[in-house]
Amino acid sequence: MSLEARMREKLMIGLSPTRLDVVNESHLHAGHASSPGTGESHFRVLIVAEAFAGSSVEALVLGGEPGAASALKMAYAAWTKGTAAMLLAIRATARATSPSCSRARSSTRACCRTPSAMRPR
């Protein structure tokens, strides 16, 4: 059974949708570094189901043209990864220029500790 068929079956059983579209768009990503080359790596799914009624789930249509979702993912990754990189650079600068941090690298002073938001989860 193909991945598309398995996805369709599980969604039908789990959500009993009134509309379900599963479109294999893997051909649009062929040759990309992250593509496994199986022909079953990228799908566009549209689900209309009573299970979502009254919930906070909001469907956003990004447009029908190929690449619309990729542009959103790229912008989000740039924002999140860029922010983390910037915070690390700021922290490194603070450590390198702060007299208290250069005197006692193992200190528990605030400038030398890793902020909780930056610690591995």
Give a structural overview.
The chain is α+β, with helices and mostly antiparallel strands and 121 residues long. The protein has 2 domains: 59 residues, BolA-like (GMP Synthetase, Chain A, domain 3), CATH 3.30.300.90; 35 residues. The protein is 40% helix and 10% strand. It contains 3 helices and 2 strands, in the order αββαα. Strands 1-2 form a two-stranded antiparallel sheet.
Which tags fit this structure?
single chain; 121 residues; alpha+beta; GMP Synthetase, Chain A, domain 3; two-stranded antiparallel sheet; 3 helices; 10% strand; elongated
Outline the secondary-structure elements.
Layout: H1 3-15, E1 19-24, E2 43-48, H2 68-97, H3 99-103
Antiparallel strand pairs: 1-2
The residue-averaged pLDDT reads 77
Overall spatial form: elongated
Q: Domains counted in the coordinates: how many?
A: 2
* Structural class estimated from helices and strands: alpha+beta
Cα(first) to Cα(last) distance is: 36 Å
Helix content: 25-40%
Number of strands: 2
Q: Which CATH architecture of the largest domain?
A: 2-Layer Sandwich
Report Rg.
23 Å
Q: In which order are the strands of the major sheet placed?
A: 1-2
Query: What can be said about the biggest beta sheet?
Result: 2 strands, antiparallel
Q: How much beta, percentage-wise? A: 5-15%
Q: What is the name of the CATH superfamily of the largest domain?
A: BolA-like
CATH level 1 name of the largest domain: Alpha Beta
Instruction: Give unreliable regions as ranges.
Output: none
